[in-house]
Write a structure and sequence with these properties.
Layout: H1 2-33, E1 39-44, H2 51-56, E2 63-66, E3 80-86, E4 95-103, E5 106-111, E6 114-120, E7 127-134, E8 142-148, E9 155-156, E10 160-164, H3 165-174, H4 177-196, H5 202-224, H6 227-232, H7 237-264, H8 269-294, H9 300-331, H10 335-360, H11 370-446, H12 450-477, E11 485-488, H13 489-506, E12 509-514, E13 520-523, H14 525-541, E14 547-556, E15 559-566, H15 573-576, H16 593-604, E16 608-614, E17 618-626
Parallel strand pairs: 12-14
Antiparallel strand pairs: 1-2, 1-3, 3-8, 4-7, 4-9, 4-10, 5-6, 5-8, 11-13, 14-15, 15-17, 16-17
Helix pairs in contact: 4-5, 5-7, 5-11, 7-8, 7-9, 8-9, 9-10, 10-11, 11-12, 12-16, 13-14, 14-16
Domain Histidine kinase: 425-629
Signal peptide: 1-28
Transmembrane segments: 180-200, 207-228, 240-259, 279-297, 303-331, 338-360, 372-391
């Protein structure tokens, strides 16, 4: 049973394929046998008697036109015309006629004496397309089209297609559908951007809203430009026409203003003056449009001249101006200008070609190339906005880092000020009792037994350590750098080698020094040595196995740089930023005063210190002071 069912399905599938193949061959044969419409005729004016007068008119009144060619130019005094075409004798079922381009406001279609289509535009729009079915009974009949307009164009400017009605319907719908979908996409994008603008700051808002307005106007232009909208939504044609004109009038000055805000920033008066002129002309155009509508399009010819011819030249001038300024900005190395210029150059080039074709064809050409330019240009604007937001985000991060750094410096400065005041007021008072106590301990130690002498020695060592801490406090509070002299960095470092080299050797390490003899700075010799010994001593105490310290110096950008690099245990990044803070030390018994004094001395000598470190790899200290020239 299952096998029979499978065989049945196979048989049916083969029959369906064969039927489809046969029907396609039959359609091909029918189409091959079908004679195309080779020519059609046009008669200017409307003879008395309507359609009967047209049918009765002699052949002298008709002008023959080959199919695919445009109508002859309309005489100035004529406002109507008749077109006739002969249908083939044999017409298959479900066929139709499609005329893509008809310049007329009102259209009547007759097959023989039967009216099959009537379209009237009560607004100034004269681009129509017509699709109507024909049956096999219409074979050999004559099709008449009556055209009527109050505008300058009249006639057919495309081929008359005869094909299956379904195929022609698909062409009729899909021809303008991409433009409508693209327009809706722009409107959706504009709506999302306008909603998102409520979360933006004032500095970012203007550019964002301008791009939103550009998207909005372009979306409306894309939707209201195709003839499909006027042919299928005739009742809203007046609104579509007005929206198209208003959107174009807003788009042009908005584009100039966007360019002015992003790149110009008030540097060029010409772009600002041109933008103001565009705003005034747009207000004039919109006002003129309203006046023309309220007066039943009485001033339509003048309005057409102002909104099409004059505006076209303004657009060309705008494109030339913006492209010229963009080239200047590109030559100056502005990266955003390169992006803008690429997108705008595509828009300007495509639009200029459209305008050239439009005026070269006596204003009968239908704009189409500009759409590709618009898409490329909008992509460029979005890229610029994205880049601007990325830059703003980076600047905000850098600002936060700087704010954190300065806040840290402020806190450190406040701590330093407190310690300086405390050290200056207390150190002298504490040192005197310590010295007296130390003296009495030495006297007592000389007269006591050995066991007590050991305790007295420990007490004296601790008093000496306290005295050293107090000395560091005094040095930090009031560094004595009154006797500033010219210092040779090489000599200063060589004088402390006798102290640091044995200390490094004692800890199982070694020191290498590479310092030229011609590096000179201004400062205090003892304090500079104190700084270097403190830093090198810290490196020695951080030795691991096979400890090494490399000291080198050089001259760069009017400064002397001194590097002290070790291969010790290193410092964690979180600890690096705290170095130099009061009472902070990475050592177990450290007080942090040594680095505090080091930082303060370097600061007084107009220098700067920087630490670089990696855990278990080592630490590098970079100190630089202003360089001086020794005569």
């Amino acid at each position: 049973m299952k096998r029979i069912s499978r065989e049945l399905w196979k048989t049916m599938l083969i029959m369906i394929i064969c039927c489809g193949f046969m029907s396609s061959n039959a359609y091909a044969e029918e189409k091959a046998d079908l004679k195309a419409i080779p020519e059609w005729s046009i008669m200017w004016g409307d003879p008395p008697g309507g359609l009967e007068g047209v049918i009765a008119a002699s052949s002298n009144h008709w002008i023959k036109v080959n199919n695919g060619e445009s109508s002859p130019e309309k005489p100035e005094e004529v406002s109507s015309a008749w077109i006739k075409l002969q249908l083939p004798t044999h017409i298959p079922m479900d066929y139709g006629i499609y005329i893509e381009g008809i310049h007329t406001q009102n259209l009547w279609v007759y097959i023989g004496d039967r009216l099959v289509r009537e379209i009237k535009f009560d607004f100034p729009y004269d681009s129509q397309r017509s699709l109507f079915p024909i049956s096999s009974e219409d074979g050999g009949k004559v099709v008449y089209l009556k055209l009527e307009t109050s505008m300058d164009r009249l006639g057919i400017n495309s081929a008359i297609k005869l094909d299956q009605y379904v195929a022609l319907t698909r062409t009729f719908i899909l021809q303008d559908l991409p433009d409508i979908i693209l327009g809706c996409a722009f409107l959706f994008m504009a709506a999302i951007m306008l909603i998102g603008s409520i979360f933006l700051k004032k500095g970012q808002l203007t550019s964002w809203v301008l791009v939103s307005v550009l998207n909005l106007t372009i979306g409306i232009i894309f939707i209201t430009y195709p003839a499909f909208m006027y042919a299928n939504f005739t009742n809203y044609g007046n609104l579509f026409s007005a929206l198209f004109d208003v959107s174009l009038a807003i788009f042009l000055p908005a584009l100039t203003y966007f360019f002015e805000k992003i790149f110009n920033d008030g540097k060029y008066n010409l772009i600002r003056w041109f933008r103001k002129f565009q705003v005034l002309y747009s207000i004039f155009s919109i006002t003129f449009m309203l006046i023309n509508q309220l007066n039943d399009y009485r001033f339509n010819k003048a309005y057409f001249f102002a909104s099409v011819t004059v505006l076209g030249f303004i657009m060309i001038s705008q494109f030339i101006l913006i492209i010229g300024l963009s080239i200047i900005l590109v030559l100056r190395g502005n990266k955003e200008a390169v992006i803008f210029s690429s997108g705008f150059a595509l828009l300007a080039f495509m639009s200029t070609l459209d305008l050239i074709y439009f005026y070269a064809s006596s204003q009968e050409y239908r704009f189409s190339l500009w759409k590709w330019g618009v898409v490329g240009f909008i992509i460029a604007l979005i890229v610029i906005l994205g880049r601007r937001f990325a830059i703003n985000q980076e600047e905000m991060i850098n600002y936060s880092k700087e704010l954190e750094f300065y806040n840290h410096q402020l806190q450190l400065s406040e701590k330093m000020e407190i310690i300086s005041s405390l050290a200056a007021s207390v150190a002298h008072e504490v040192r005197n009792p310590l010295q007296v106590t130390r003296g009495f301990l030495q006297l007592v130690a000389a007269r006591t037994d050995d066991k007590n002498k050991e305790y007295m020695g420990i007490a004296i060592e601790e008093l000496d350590r306290a005295s050293v801490i107090i000395t560091d406090f005094l040095t930090f509070a009031k560094p004595q750098l009154d006797d500033l002299v010219d210092l040779n960095v090489s000599k200063e470092i060589s004088q402390i080698e006798g102290i640091i080299v044995p200390l490094a050797t004692l800890h199982g390490g070694r020191i290498t020094v590479s310092v030229p003899n011609d590096l000179h700075i201004q400062g205090n010799s003892s304090k500079l040595k104190q700084v270097l010994i403190n830093i090198i001593k810290n490196s020695i105490e951080a030795f691991q196995v096979d400890g090494q310290i490399h000291i080198w110096a050089y001259h760069k950008n009017d400064e002397v740089y001194i590097h002290i690099k070790d291969n010790g245990e290193g410092i964690e990044p979180a600890q690096l930023i705290k170095l130099g803070e009061p009472y902070y030390s990475t050592k177990t018994k450290g007080t942090g005063l040594g680095l505090m004094v080091t930082f303060r001395i370097i600061e007084i000598m107009k220098g700067h210190i920087e630490f670089k470190s990696q855990r278990y790899i080592g630490t590098e200290v970079i100190i630089h002071f202003p360089s001086i020239t020794v005569k």
